[in-house]
Design a protein that fits this description.
globular, TIM Barrel, 2 domains, nine-stranded mixed beta sheet, two-stranded antiparallel ribbon, 383 residues, alpha/beta
Length: 383
Amino acid sequence: MLKIPNDSFCMLPFVHLHIDEQNDIKLCCNASSPVKKYSKEFNFDTDPDLVDVRNKMLAGEKVKYCNRCYDIDQLNAKSFRYFHSVEWITNLKIKEVSDINADLIFYDIRNDNTCNLGCRMCGPGFSSQLEKEFIKLKWLAPTFRQKYKLNEIINLEKIKKLYVAGGEPTLMPEFKEFLEYAIKENRTDIELRIITNGTNINKEFAGLLKKFPNKEFTISIDGYNQVNRYIRWPSNWISLVENIKRLYEITNRISFNITVSMWNISNLSQLISFLNTEFNRPIIFLNEAIKGGGGHSSPFNFPNKKLALDDLSLMKTYSNYNVDIFQNKLDYFISIIEKTEIDLIELAKFFAYNDALDNSRNVKLIDYIPELEACRSYITKQI
């Protein structure tokens, strides 16, 4: 099997199309900026901007859209670029560089922001609940809706894999319509990867999914019990755990995605310990909060470094640390926290944003994450 050709190369621009709620085409959901806007005239194989990206990658030249992966690579960790490339080189049985051609078989289309939660590290472009709350708070809340439905974008004859995120996919009518269309056209062999908050597993949705044998769920979850409720407001812990168990009745291919942020960087070990015990050491993805959260929720600005590092280091003793994708991201977080200086101006902005949400929701941070509330003193001490 072919090894990844060079440190710039990624398989996704050769096989994958990502379109977000703003109708922007990106190389993937982790890309730092869009390539262009999508239109019906767009041609994946011949588009000059994508052709340029592919040529540069094959030549070993780094492209501007992929800096987040390149930054992780420089820390001797393995980025999404690595894992996606290994996956598709293996799946397509590519043996030579000359075998790599543009062939759109993997889609990630974000139709709208329909969601039943208002997650603190998210934004109104990805949550209709946050959109309403931002409007109530008189904050900027641009509304984005994908112009084209899944059925209009996806080539049903060629697709092999569909990645579905949101918003919340279980609430999106466009996804339901696509499933019904695929069933009608006898394309239930499509691989489905569904990113869900796990709070809305209704019978109709589950019934449709049972017709697709090749599927997996990634559950977005960010804290143990009340910490998760505070971050992913207003999720209910008991019903969430019950719903996850229902998903295991549909498929045992279930993983968990944790958005690492200011809110949970000091208490991740309790959540991961629970997941390991309750669900027999599942695959767990650790992803950095980049946008949303008022733009100030980066875990690297958590001021009590010892507390965060002690909790992260504890997870090195967990069996998850033997899995590359977990070990690499855990080491990445530890490395960045160790060398990042605290920005007190950003910290003050974080608390201002968080306090506004607390007032809107009639809750108090100290009742849910007291160690984070204690970090407010770093600002007052500096003053």
